[in-house]
Amino acid sequence: MKILRAPLLMIGLLMCAQGFAATAQQNKMTTCNADATAKSLKGDERKTFMSTCLKAAPAANDDGKVLTPQQQKMKTCNADAATKALKGDERKVFMSDCLKKK
Predict the structure, then answer these.
(1) Are 41 and 49 a contacting pair, CB within 8 Å?
(2) Which one-letter DSSP state was computed for residue 39?
(3) Do the Cβ atoms of 12 and 4 come closer than 8 Å?
(4) What is the pLDDT of residue 2?
(5) Hey, what's the signal peptide range on this chain (predicted)?
(6) Rounded Cα–Cα distance for residues 67 and 59 (Å)
(7) Which residues, 6+ apart, have CB-to-CB distance to 29 below 8 Å?
(8) Hey, where are the domains in the chain?
């Protein structure tokens, strides 16, 4: 009986951990919601934006490869840092904050 406890406990923990992992759709919802909030959209405008955003294909890079949410986040933050002409430590701090926010 004691031999079965550890394997059963491990199986239970693995099954629980899978329930906490965010799916691609949940990540997309989070990103679209953040974009809608940043644009201060309300009511029907927000509904339309969210619908379009959630239906949109995943972002691709110049090679046509689909980017992961983390890669897309990095691309966006990098573009923002370049627009602000940040260099050195300022850029590192900005990138760190940007990647944590989204």
Answers:
(1) yes
(2) T
(3) no
(4) 63
(5) 1-21
(6) 6
(7) 54
(8) 33-66, 68-101
- Chain CA centroid to CA 27, Å: 5
Map 53-88 to HEC letters.
HHHCCCCECCCCCECCHHHHHHHHHHHHHHHCCCCH
Kindly compute the dihedral angle of the four CA atoms of residues 53, 102, 41, 26, in this order, to the nearest 10 degrees. 40
pLDDT at 65: 74
In 3D, which of 42, 50, 33 has the Cα closest to residue 102?
A: 33
pLDDT mean values, one per 10 residues, the chain (102 residues): 64 61 77 87 90 74 71 87 92 91 67
Give the pLDDT of residue 58.
Answer: 61
Environment class of 55 (CB within 10 Å of its CB; exposed 0-12, middle 13-18, buried 19+): exposed
**Separation of first and last alpha carbons in the chain:** 47
**CA distance linking residue 81 with residue 54, whole number of Å:** 26
- CA–CA dist 79, 67 (Å, integer): 15
